[in-house]
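Board notes (copied after class):
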Amino acid sequence: MSFTAEVKDELSRVEDKEADCSLAELSALMRICGTLSYHGPGHYSIRIATETGSVARTAMRLIHKRLDLQTMLTVRRSVQRKTRNYLIEIPEQDRLADDLVLLGILSPGRGLAPGIPQALITSDDTVRAFVRGAFMASGFVADPRGDFHLEIAVTGEELAQGIARLVQRMGVTARLNHRRGSYAIYLKSFEDVRRLLLGMGAQRSARAVENVRHLKNVKNDVNRRVNAELANGRRSSRSGAEQLMLVERVAREVGIRDLPPALKEFCELRARFPEMSLAELGKLCNPSASKSAMYHRVLRLQKLVNQKG
């Protein structure tokens, strides 16, 4: 099961106690997944199509619980795509037109209502419910272990802008992208996706995102430290090689025996341990010397060689 399917399955189990929240969620589901047919004044039918079982289950539950409409469910299996297609048909019936007005899908005497049904969005809870329905209908969230993002794709700029504003009301930063006739409300950051999942009611999925983010941070921190150690090791190796060449030049041009004790000790240790850093080499001195003291000895040796040259 994909991460998107897991999230939608979790959201399908969220049940709002308030009727206005259920209506807001159903409104988003119908508006995005549904196709409205007109059969004359006051006569309509709707077909809701989805490939996700949890979405079909949610739509059926909300329709029967809040509207008590007659429905027909058809399940077909796509041989080519190896998926199930769910079709919910709401045939023409006496109460349907009034229910469509209640859901904010129709405006009395004006036909289809554009954008967000403001009469339904009366509280923070209804905001969350409508966004949850929109995500259930056409949302996608990538596996957090990969290139992570979340989006809700809809047709109609006014609806897309309205959903983006609702997402912003939930404290989440969202961008709106136009893609070949459709619009996507797009979230990129871990924190925004986690916050939206929590707001919609997907607490388990939000924890999964948080766990993955923590693991990624730990992995990135380890990689940074390893890279820093490797870089330090390369620098130490280069410095050790340069210092070894300096010691060989001192031996030829000055003579190790004629050096002061501290410089003689450095030359002997560097010749024995060419791979060690100055700090490590300093610990072998008697008495031990700091890294800066060892570096000062290198400068003194360099000065001696320069004077001979």
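Comment from the instructor: The chain has two domains: 3-201, 217-308. DSSP finds eleven helices and ten strands in the chain.
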